[in-house]
């Protein structure tokens, strides 16, 4: 029987009277990029926040690497990286300081830090910004720096919300390559996106959400028309 690093079983998440997740059943494989797609309010971001231990389940259970992200948040976060769709960076830190701090919080030693931090900055093409203040970055630069900080510790599970927001083509290529490299190295990568082209370019596994439930799932394809046809059919 297959073992999935990330699972949800009958998960309900409420915000007041609203059910953001309504009996979510989900199995996400390791070593692949899974794209969560669906309209605004489908539950994509809430799913990532649930898995990161930022919101609790009212009912059902979620597991990340066999751990409960709400009951065991420290253990989960030591093995997980989360990039929100609008990362807020500490304005008083330089880019280099931010990435070093993030990696150090995950337990990397002083000896390990320099090459790992340098590699993360170079990989996201922000090494030339290492001495810049985080508060002075453009939105696109901040997005790439935040991803470098998330990737540096080498998380086993990577949750990325709308990773291509405000990125130019060169930056999109760098981000796609980074996410693909992590999945090829065995990490579980989950992304959300509204853009079919990004799904086609990135995803090995596609899950369509609507009203907090899984409406359908399929293998990824580089054929944008095929994806569009499937999404329209699954929503009818």
Strands, helices and their partners?
Elements: E1 6-15, E2 18-28, E3 33-37, H1 44-51, E4 59-64, H2 73-77, E5 80-83, H3 95-105, H4 113-123, H5 139-151, E6 157-161, H6 169-184, E7 188-192, H7 196-202, E8 205-210, E9 213-219, H8 224-235
Parallel strand pairs: 3-7, 3-8, 5-6, 6-7
Antiparallel strand pairs: 1-2, 1-4, 8-9
Helix pairs in contact: 3-4, 3-5, 4-5
The helix content, as a percent range, equals: 25-40%
Report the total helices: 8
Strand order of the largest sheet: 5-6-7-3-8-9
**Which second-level CATH architecture of the largest domain applies?**
3-Layer(aba) Sandwich
pLDDT averaged over residues: 93
pLDDT < 50 runs, ≥5 residues: none
CA-to-CA gap between the ends? 32 Å
Structural class label: alpha/beta
Helix/strand order: EEEHEHEHHHEHEHEEH
Summary tags:
3-stranded antiparallel beta sheet; about 240 residues; 6-stranded mixed beta sheet; alpha/beta; Rossmann fold
């Amino acid at each position: 029987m297959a073992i999935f690093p990330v699972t949800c079983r009958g998960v309900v998440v409420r915000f007041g009277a609203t059910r953001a997740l309504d009996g979510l059943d989900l199995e996400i494989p390791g070593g692949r990029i899974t794209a969560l797609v669906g309209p605004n309010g489908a539950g994509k971001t809430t799913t990532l926040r649930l898995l990161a231990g930022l919101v609790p389940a009212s009912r059902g259970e979620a597991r990340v690497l066999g751990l409960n992200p709400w009951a065991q948040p420290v253990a989960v976060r030591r093995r997980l990286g989360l990039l929100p769709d609008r990362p807020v960076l500490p304005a008083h830190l330089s880019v280099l300081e931010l990435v070093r701090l993030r990696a150090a919080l995950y337990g990397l030693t002083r000896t390990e830090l320099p090459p790992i931090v340098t590699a993360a900055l170079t990989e996201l093409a922000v090494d030339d910004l290492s001495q810049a203040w985080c508060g002075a970055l453009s939105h696109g630069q901040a997005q790439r720096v935040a991803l470098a900080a998330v990737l540096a510790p080498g998380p086993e599970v990577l949750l990325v919300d709308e990773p291509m927001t405000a990125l130019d083509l060169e930056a999109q290529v760098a981000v796609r390559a980074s996410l693909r490299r992590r999945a090829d190295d065995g990490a579980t990568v989950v992304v959300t996106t509204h853009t079919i082209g990004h799904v086609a370019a990135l995803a090995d596994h596609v899950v369509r959400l609507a009203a907090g439930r899984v409406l359908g799932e399929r293998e990824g394809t580089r054929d944008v028309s095929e994806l569009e046809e499937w999404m329209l059919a699954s929503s009818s």
